[in-house]
Amino acid sequence: MTLRIQRSIERKRVVLTLTGRIQAAHVPELLAQLRSESTAHGIVLDLEQVKLVDRDAVLFLALSEALGAELRNCSAYIRKWIDQERSTRRGQSENPEESEE
Known about the structure:
Elements: E1 3-10, E2 13-22, H1 27-36, E3 43-53, H2 55-66, E4 70-72, H3 76-94, H4 96-99
Helix pairs in contact: 2-3
């Protein structure tokens, strides 16, 4: 299954509706799309039709959200995975000597 990206405007915000499966190979394309959307009103990633993701996709979504993008219609399993990745990274940054062992 491939990833389809549909762009629309909603109340001055760019909405990228993603459909399909997000894999590591799609992350550069998604990053380029986000970089090209210089909007002061924000970006929304609508994930309602996203069924599967891999770890790179989850890291991309976590970073996008941390940088201000809204993740709309994010499934519970993806949300949980994003939160777990954030917790793991937060723990590693607080205890850098533990991650070296």
